[in-house]
Amino acid sequence: MNIVETGTARLRDDFAGAGMATITFGDFCKRYDKHLWTVDILPEAIALSKRLTIEFQDAITYVTGDLVEFLSTFSGRIDLLYLDSADCPDRDAEPERLQHSQEHQLREMGAAWDKLHEQSIILLDDNDFANGGKCALTNKLAEHGWMCLMADKQVLWIWDSKIQFRAQCPGWTSL
Prior knowledge:
Layout: E1 2-6, H1 21-32, E2 35-40, H2 43-52, E3 60-64, H3 67-73, E4 80-83, H4 95-112, E5 121-125, E6 146-151, E7 154-159
Parallel strand pairs: 1-2, 1-4, 2-3, 4-5
Antiparallel strand pairs: 5-7, 6-7
Helix pairs in contact: 3-4
C-alpha cells in the first residue's frame, strides 16, 4: 500500500491547527508494513518532519521538491492520496492566495490522476471554509465517478463501484 501526502508536518504537536497526518500515516505504515511518501517544497519542513517521525522513518520516504512534478513522475500506484499543500486562507481578504491554493490542488490532482485506481482513497484538506476553501475546484470529483463519504474540514472520496473505473477517467486537466 502506498500513501502519498503532499505537504508534510510543519509544527510539533499541532493537532488542533495544521494537523499531524505525517505522524499518523507514518505510525500506520510502520505498524502494518505499508509505505508513506511525504513531499514538501520546503527543506526545513522535511527536516522537521524527519525529526517528528524518526520512530517511523523506515516506513517513510521523504521528498523535498515540487509536488506536482513529484506526482507526475511517481511510478507507483497511489492507494491513499492526501493533498495538504498550499494552505488556504480562511477568509476572503486574500483572493489571490485562495485562487492559488485551489488551482494548486487541482494541478496536484491532475498529476496524480493516472496513479489512482478503483480502490484508491482521496483525502483533500482545507474544505469547510466560508470562502469555499481549497477544495472548491476538486469537488468536481463527483462528476468523474467519485463518491464523497465525508465533507468537513477535509473531504474524503472513494470510487463509486457502480461505475466502470477506466471508462470514467478521461483525465483531470479538462476540469
